[in-house]
Amino acid sequence: MLRLFLLVFSFFALFFLTLYGTKALNAQTPSNKSSLVITWKSGSFFPANFTGKAPATPFSPIIASVEAVSGGKILNLSRAAISWKIDNKPIGNGAGMKNVSFRVQKNKGDFHILSVSVSQNDSVSEDSVIIPIYPQIIVVELPFKDNTISPGVENAIKAVPYFFNIDSIKNISFFWQINNENKGGGNNDTLILKTGEPQLQSQETVEITASAQNNNNPLEFAKSRVWLKISR
């Protein structure tokens, strides 16, 4: 009986020693995996005074990069095997390939999932980010108090496009309407509103519509509508 007791005791002692000893060893052994930091930026156009981050828009070029951090230090990835995927489709791989570029291939309201895998020193780290896709926009600037203008006065109204895939604003065509009446198009981003014109003399409000289109890609189009009061 004593021999059986000692045998059973030894078995359970060995079992618990193996179980909790392994857990303790794993808890004390630090993981050699590094944390990845993915950043990206859009190459779409925006005015010089815009201080935010340009969003991804349809057709916009995206440049992404990755850094690996371990113990509060940025690691040298020059020899690391790095592979990139967009929506689970490979877009690039190679030693030290910290940067990758691609174009947005989806419509506004959708998103891309950008993933990266970094293999170095027998350790593999992976991470991904979601890149939401926004539309191009056009902003009609109204430098008038309470959006109110005086009758019989010429007023300059400017349209500013954001996040189109252009090198210069010269690649944008503008189209203007006053109360749904076409007022021409071209490269002029400014409309001269003459409230003294006969069709506006009796009105208390006026509707202005501005549209912008990429000359190199007609699918890039934006429209904005505003209303002005005419003081009487």
Topology at a glance:
Elements: H1 2-28, E1 35-42, E2 61-70, E3 73-74, E4 81-86, E5 89-95, E6 99-103, E7 111-120, E8 123-132, E9 137-141, E10 148-149, E11 154-162, E12 172-178, E13 181-186, E14 190-194, E15 205-214, E16 217-230
Parallel strand pairs: 10-16
Antiparallel strand pairs: 1-2, 2-3, 2-6, 4-5, 4-7, 7-8, 9-11, 11-14, 12-13, 12-15, 15-16
Can you walk through the features of this model?
The protein has one helix and 16 strands. The protein has 232 residues and is mainly β. The chain folds into two domains: 35-132, Immunoglobulins (Immunoglobulin-like); 137-230, Sandwich (Immunoglobulin-like). A five-stranded mixed β-sheet has the order 10-16-15-12-13, with no helix packed on it.
Spell out the key features of this protein.
232 residues, mainly beta, Immunoglobulin-like, 1 helix, disordered N terminus
Summary, kept brief:
The chain is mainly beta and 232 residues long. It contains 1 helix and 16 strands.
